[in-house]
């Protein structure tokens, strides 16, 4: 608690209570927007203005100029100045309303910190504005860059009469970025509004060149430094340090590397899109690509196209094959709820990652593909901490527990990308730079790990080949995927064909066929999958309803029975492990039985899952898998290991006494038959996930059926 700030708050409440609609402020001794607004409202009341507590053009126009040379000053206005100085951390003496030597010293110190030369104690609209319209400071903030503070002070020193004062806290920000644009516009001889436009772009000088005067070179040096390229000093001279910084920046932004800072360099330094008319080799779109649209893209020089993994305009298997067959790479993007800031939390990150990974797997993306999870909304810095980073933590938890190798990328504004990468939760950034109004773009450098830079929406082609795209610059660090291997074959085709039953309704069993999974001299594994579909209405929202019993068995009794058939030395309690899942599965049955014919002992497990695809239960699907594991009665320990090796080779699951049952989360230490069974369950989980994905309801990846997140 700051006692001088507390005194200011108490004085405001005592002096202005019941006047001009003044709202009492919290008396906590902490500078905040409430206190700043209270000081502004107080000044407005003294000036006879409407007291909304917001600094604006009218308040600025009517603001007086006061100093130690004035006589007969309004004591309340002096006290407001003193309170504003207290809130900025300056000693203004006492809250007396008298313009004392300490008050004068506080004003002078503020001006010196701001970078003004020949600072005096005169406080006019410029000083009142910085005290009453911003929370930013004029001293070097903890951990910030003193060179950026020097840039801010120099901009104030050279341009304050036109642009006012910007904070000098060493933090590159929107204010600093706009001040640089305004300063450039002043040197160009145009109106300094701080808005990058065609006129500003066209008047940019080329350095070195005929307009290489000291002020332009200084602004170039400043702009390079705040974008991470040190020109080796701010002297207004063109030397080797500046030349190398220009080349480094050009290479980083994928501009021609020639050491000349022309229009494109200035644009890339000062506005997030850079030169928005640059032609990229990558694009993304929300349209299903046909052959005609693909031809349009290729004719315009595009080699990579970004497509959505889920949603209304999701990439389909046939589309993926068409794109890659025409020698274009595909960039996988997950953007189901990216426009909703409220969606971003750790739990939803975990769930979204499962959806994205299943979709990517079904579409045949290689497991080293980068999946870009979208944050397509305006996010303030504190919201990155509160929402976005926890979301990507959830994405990474899913990646770890699923055991997939997909790489995590992010599509977002500059600051969001950089902070998530710095937290270790992403490895590649797809920057939405064309969203110039996003809080995380203006005043932030391009992320170090950027791979794609989205700069402009445009429409290409005509007729059937017409397509709207976002034009993207590709850095070359990731090129998307050239080859995809969508799930096809018998299972894929049959499941895809289920949609034809909508035309005539009724019941249809798509297939039920026992197939051999593994066969060795001492081990046989067969499986059968059946899908029974009943249709009596239109598709709607997906719900997974734990339902149906098989042979009256419950989870616990099933696994008690299963555990009883295993060698106790080779297993840890299956019943205890699967009980963890019971709250999610309810009474859904997993039936288990053992039989022997004297030569083979057969362990048989049946798993039914009933899924409703309509909130009114008009469409239901019952999926069932039946697995038989037969081990020769005289088989030894080496035969069991041979079986484990066979299952591992077939399924891709490494079985060395540790098996992941299901797709996520529950790690169970098993051995012998249980290890084989665990691998089969894991494999079936992928099959079931594939089936659900092919129906278009990616999000249902066995949540609450086989697995439960333990965090």
Automatic annotation (TrEMBL):
Domain of life: Bacteria
Record keywords: Hydrolase, Membrane, Transmembrane, Transmembrane helix
InterPro entries documented for this protein: GH, Peptidoglycan-bd-like, PGBD-like_sf, PGBDSf, Rv2525c-like_Glyco_Hydro-like
The protein's name: Peptidoglycan-binding (PGRP) domain of peptidoglycan hydrolases-containing protein
GO MF annotation: an example: hydrolase activity
Chain ranges of the Peptidoglycan binding-like domain: 219-269
SUPFAM superfamilies (UniProt xref): (Trans)glycosidases (SSF51445), PGBD-like (SSF47090)
Rv2525c-like glycoside hydrolase-like domain ranges (all copies): 296-473
Transmembrane feature ranges: 653-684, 691-710
